[in-house]
From TrEMBL:
It is found in: Membrane. Pfam families: EI24. It comes from Daphnia magna. The chain crosses the membrane at residues 69-90, 110-133, 166-186, 234-251. This is Etoposide-induced protein 2.4. It is a multi-pass membrane protein. Keywords: Membrane, Transmembrane, Transmembrane helix. Belongs to the EI24 family. Signal peptide: none annotated.
Length: 297
């Protein structure tokens, strides 16, 4: 009973921290400027800004809006176009084709298995590559947000020791996240009512948490295995943290700040979920058979 209480408490804490980040994004720029002003006053290095004609736009809020417009706009428009235009058009054409022979029941039967296949194909061939592309394109914008929030709350980032190690870690993380997204889709296709949806939701919550906290842990010098193990060991908190983002996927970047400001609880860690283990093993196999083989030759 105590373990169940810890799990529920950790999940609730994660939800609250995630929601807090939605509102923190609008005030953090002001607090950072106040902190910088206090430091300048302490060091007697006050800079006069009376001659400045136009004020600078808040960096964090500006970057967040850029990321939200790019990711939310592209994702939302493409999903809306597919579900609201493409699928209904295909269904109408299919019904029209079968209507000449009076086989409307056959049309409904064909559509019952055609629709899931088309949705899975769209997710695999469009949503997944778009996720990887957005991860690569926006990593610089997201890193700006994470760096500013991290410097405000913790000071100078402690990055990985070498540039090559940083690049390798980033590439491996992108592969892991892409494979984990595929794993989440596969869980959603399991022929088990309700359970498949819950399991897929759990995967997406952990993926969103990794996506949000990764920049903070990267600034702390954590390598990818440590980041994944930490999420698996404390999955109740990260499930709760990623739950609002899994529901409101149109606001993808706002929890990046809350991921830097949150204090993950470590109480409920008695039952770790090794959900990342399959994709880590698969990614290791892919890298060993490609990069590892090219190095050996």
């Amino acid at each position: 009973m105590e373990h169940i209480k810890d799990v529920l408490s950790a999940a609730s804490r994660g939800i609250l921290d995630s929601l807090r980040g939605f509102f923190l994004i609008f005030t953090l720029d002001r607090e950072i400027e106040l902190q910088r002003s206090l430091k300048r006053e302490t060091k007697n290095k006050i800079i006069r800004r009376a001659q400045m004609t136009t004020p600078k736009e808040p960096r964090i809020l500006h970057r967040t809006l850029q990321c939200s417009l790019l990711n939310g706009g592209v994702f939302c428009l493409s999903i809306f176009a597919f579900n609201g235009i493409v699928l209904p058009l295909i269904e109408a054409l299919l019904t029209f084709s079968f209507s000449f022979g009076g086989q409307l029941n056959a049309a409904q039967w064909v559509w019952s298995w055609t629709s899931p296949v088309l949705s899975a194909t769209f997710s695999t061939l469009w949503i997944l590559p778009l996720f990887v592309l957005s991860k690569f394109v926006n990593c610089f914008w997201f890193q700006d947000i994470a760096d500013a929030a991290y410097k405000y709350s913790r000071g100078r980032p402690q990055l990985l020791p070498s540039i090559s190690k940083m690049i390798a870690d980033m590439l491996f993380s992108m592969v892991i996240q892409a494979l984990f997204l595929v794993q989440a889709m596969v869980m959603g296709l399991l022929p088990i009512a309700v359970f498949n949806g819950l399991l897929s939701m759990l995967h997406m919550c952990l993926l969103y948490s990794l996506y949000s906290f990764e920049y903070r842990w990267f600034n702390e010098g954590w390598e990818l295995p440590k980041r994944l193990t930490h999420i698996e060991n404390h999955w109740p908190y990260f499930f709760g943290f990623g739950l609002p983002l899994a529901i409101l996927t149109s606001i993808p970047s706002s929890t990046l700040v809350s991921g830097n400001e949150a204090r993950p609880t470590t109480k409920a860690n008695n039952y770790p979920l090794r959900l990342f283990s399959p994709v880590v093993a698969l990614a290791n196999t892919i890298f060993n058979r490609t990069i590892g083989r090219s190095r050996s030759t």
